[in-house]
């Protein structure tokens, strides 16, 4: 999706009142509420990375209504190859099996902010 593919399959996994939390001070930071704001967030990341973003999911942990997964990401931003590591924590609506809330947790918040702010 971040590399330019359709976001529709991802949107189908989200509740209408999804909240996507992104910490920090970069242009992608904030609490994105509802499908429209979350899809705008997806599109903004894709735009900033000129559709070069790649995500490599790592280990996942599942407990009740929560899923946590390590992810390594990379992209070319401002002609520089960059990479980062995050953990995504997902709260899933157990009845509808849809994602209801997400916390993106960068393992290095300062680096993550610099990457998405375009400052090296």
CATH class: Alpha Beta
Structural class: alpha+beta
Number of helices: 3
Tally of individual domains: 1
Looking across the biggest beta sheet, what order are the strands in?
A: 2-1-6-5-4-3
Q: Characterize the overall form.
A: globular
Query: Would you identify the CATH architecture?
Result: Roll
**Relative helix content:** 10-25%
CATH topology: Nuclear Transport Factor 2, Chain: A
What is the terminal-to-terminal distance? Answer: 25 Å
| Average pLDDT rating | 93
Radius of gyration: 14 Å
Total strands: the figure is 6
Plain-language structure description:
There is one protein chain. It contains 3 helices and 6 strands, in the order αββαββββα. The chain is of the alpha+beta class and 120 residues long. The protein has one domain: Nuclear Transport Factor 2, Chain: A. Strand 5 and strand 6 form a beta hairpin. The longest helix is centred in the middle third of the chain and has 15 residues. The mean pLDDT is 93.
């Amino acid at each position: 999706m971040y590399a330019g593919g359709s976001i529709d399959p991802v949107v189908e996994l989200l509740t209408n009142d999804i909240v996507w939390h992104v910490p920090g001070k970069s242009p992608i930071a904030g609490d994105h509420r509802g499908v429209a704001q979350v899809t705008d967030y997806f599109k903004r990341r894709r735009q900033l990375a000129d559709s070069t973003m790649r995500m490599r999911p790592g280990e996942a942990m599942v407990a009740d209504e929560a899923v946590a997964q390590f992810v390594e990401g990379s992209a070319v931003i401002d002609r520089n190859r960059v990479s980062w590591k995050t953990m995504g924590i997902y709260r899933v609506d157990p009845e509808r099996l849809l994602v209801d809330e997400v916390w993106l947790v960068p393992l290095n918040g300062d680096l993550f902010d610099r990457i998405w702010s375009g400052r090296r």
